[in-house]
Specification:
Oligomer: single chain
Helix content: 25-40%
Radius of gyration: 15 Å
Distance between the termini: 24 Å
Order of helices and strands: HHEEEEHEEEEHH
Number of helices: 5
């Protein structure tokens, strides 16, 4: 999925979630910016994430992010790579150690624009996060990366208690629960 493919996918992306739908025009606009995939773009840039679930759709793999100190999906910066599905898969593998990762659908699963607080010399900025639905085996050992404080398979019914009010996580959880792409 290159820049043009991403733009086309975003133009055709539909969601019943009002907040998510409101992000679409800004995401499309960002695809026209030459620096959209570089973390050096201080106003904000694309990131790729993996919403990793088990085959039975009962658990999600989440990380306690070291810098943000919040439970989140796995993912990260594109660092110039315009293929955000590739970014999401690479970040998921690096952050979990899993080799059983499988793309459920190569299309966009979810999008979210969220603010990242200032950290040292890096000013506050937006992440334009494109998310993909990925499946993995729960019995495979997890390998904690230096980007995480913890990594765990969280039962769907415990996710909301763990993340508190985080509409983007609860939205992905709801989408997964209603997903027709089950097995």
């Amino acid at each position: 999925m290159d820049r043009l493919s991403l733009r086309t996918n975003l133009e055709n992306y539909r969601t019943p979630f009002e907040e998510e739908a409101s992000f679409i025009p800004d995401f499309i606009k960002l695809t026209h910016d030459e620096q959209a995939y570089a973390r050096e773009r201080e106003a904000g840039h694309f990131t790729g994430s993996a919403w990793i679930v088990n085959k039975r759709r009962t658990h999600a793999l989440m990380t306690l992010h070291r810098k943000l100190n919040r439970w989140l999906q796995l993912g990260g910066h594109a660092d110039g790579n315009e293929n955000l599905l590739e970014v999401a898969l690479l970040e998921a593998q690096e952050e979990s150690g899993l080799s059983s990762l499988r793309i459920v659908d190569p299309g966009i699963f979810d999008i979210d624009r969220h603010i990242i607080p200032q950290k040292g010399d890096i000013p506050e900025h937006f992440h334009y996060d494109v998310r993909f639905l990925i499946e993995a085996e729960m019995n495979e050992p997890l390998v904690l990366s230096e980007e995480s404080k913890d990594l765990a398979w969280i039962p769907f019914d415990a996710v909301e208690d763990l993340v508190g009010f985080n509409p983007s996580i609860t939205r992905m959880l709801e989408k997964t629960s209603k997903s027709e792409i089950l097995l």
